[in-house]
């Protein structure tokens, strides 16, 4: 069977059709159930991993994933490469394309990653940028699918900052027909260009997209309740200011009492207990954060097979 995603880059979820997105989720469930059947799937392939921001899950799950598929990883801290001394992205992309079979990058600038993907002749995977975190959405939607048995028609409430996670929930949710309700403080809404993409997707998928400032309204009757840190990597200087501004957006027992009785709590992690979520919610029975984190491994293995395996 031909693989339509072979050789492509995934910088954000606009680069997948609904069918392609669902095919990655389906392959992830197969790989999770039968990992041994895929242990040679990427035999001899090498993934370079470039980090300009910290990571635990992305670093370990991508490296473990490529090893489990029969390949190998080379992990680079961008500061210790010539990129860190200002070597042009174009030269880096062309040189790396001659050595390895794929690049996973975690950095700040989406423009830089786009240039890397344009200039490289191998797939580039976004492992988090200021505006997107597509691999996390693959893992989150795999988790929702495992627990709820479907994606279409699920109501997902995201309460917090209109950041990379909010953006990726908007694009991914609207791609698969989820209803996405996002509550942020005024001034911290998702970017309008991302909202426009989600509204356009929703015309096809039937999603309902809601952008509001009221967390209770967002969480009302939600199947899935999600949050993220109030200050993302690169925004550390705003931490104290945001702790005050976001206090009413904490996910706590009172807020989740508005969700469905069998709601599911997700958080991409790392989390700040007592800030964006209380311990009794994140460590409670509705929380699936560790299943979600494990699913980074399975979802990314599926993505790498789709992008890096030629048959
Ligand atoms: N969720 C996530 O991307 O975790 P890391 O920052 O640890 O990679
Ligand atoms: N929004 C967070 C996600 C961390 C995985 C950040 O960008 O820091």
Automatic annotation (TrEMBL):
- What reaction does this enzyme carry out catalytically? carbamoyl phosphate + L-ornithine = L-citrulline + phosphate + H(+)
The Enzyme Commission number assigned here is 2.1.3.3
Occurrences of domain Aspartate/ornithine carbamoyltransferase carbamoyl-P binding (ranges): 8-146
List the GO biological process terms: citrulline biosynthetic process; L-arginine biosynthetic process via ornithine
Q: In which pathway does it act?
A: Amino-acid biosynthesis; L-arginine biosynthesis; L-arginine from L-ornithine and carbamoyl phosphate: step 1/3
Ranges of residues in domain Aspartate/ornithine carbamoyltransferase Asp/Orn-binding = 152-305
Q: Where on this chain does carbamoyl phosphate bind?
A: 55-58, 82, 106, 133-136, 268-269, 296
Q: GO CC annotations? A: cytoplasm
Specify which residues bind L-ornithine according to the UniProt entry for this protein: 164, 228, 232-233
The record's subcellular location field reads: Cytoplasm
Per UniProt, what is one GO molecular function of this protein? ornithine carbamoyltransferase activity
Keywords from the UniProt entry: Cytoplasm, Transferase
Alphabetical list of SUPFAM superfamilies matching this protein: Aspartate/ornithine carbamoyltransferase
Write down what this protein is called: Ornithine carbamoyltransferase
What does the sequence similarity comment in the record state about its family? Belongs to the aspartate/ornithine carbamoyltransferase superfamily. OTCase family.
């Amino acid at each position: 069977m031909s693989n339509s995603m072979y050789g492509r880059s995934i910088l954000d979820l606009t680069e997948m059709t609904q069918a392609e997105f669902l095919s990655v989720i389906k392959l992830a469930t197969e790989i999770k159930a039968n990992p041994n059947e895929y242990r040679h799937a990427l035999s001899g392939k090498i993934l370079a991993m470039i980090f300009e921001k910290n990571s635990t899950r992305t670093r370990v799950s991508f490296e473990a994933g490529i090893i489990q598929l029969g390949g190998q990883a080379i992990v680079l801290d961008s500061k210790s490469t010539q990129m860190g001394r200002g070597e042009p992205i174009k030269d880096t992309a062309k040189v790396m394309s001659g050595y390895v079979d794929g690049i996973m990058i975690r950095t700040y600038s989406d423009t830089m990653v786009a240039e890397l993907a344009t200039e490289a002749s191998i797939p580039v995977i976004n492992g988090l940028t200021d505006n997107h975190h597509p691999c996390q959405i693959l893992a989150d939607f795999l988790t929702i699918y495992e627990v709820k048995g479907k994606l279409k028609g699920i109501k997902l409430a995201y309460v917090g900052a209109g950041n990379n996670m909010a953006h990726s929930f908007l694009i991914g949710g609207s791609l698969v027909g989820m209803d996405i309700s996002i509550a942020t403080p005024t001034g911290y809404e998702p970017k309008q260009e991302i909202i426009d993409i989600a509204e356009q997707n929703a015309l096809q998928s039937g999603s309902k997209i809601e952008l509001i400032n009221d967390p209770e309204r967002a969480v009302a009757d939600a199947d899935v309740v999600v949050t993220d840190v109030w200050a993302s990597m690169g925004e550390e200087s705003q931490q104290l200011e945001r702790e005050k501004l976001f206090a009413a957006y904490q996910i706590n027992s009172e807020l989740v009492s508005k969700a469905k009785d069998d709601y599911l709590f997700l958080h991409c992690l790392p989390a700040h207990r007592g800030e964006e979520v209380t311990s009794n919610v994140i460590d409670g029975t509705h929380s699936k954060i560790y299943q979600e984190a494990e699913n980074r491994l399975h979802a990314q293995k599926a993505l790498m097979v789709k992008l890096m395996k030629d048959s």
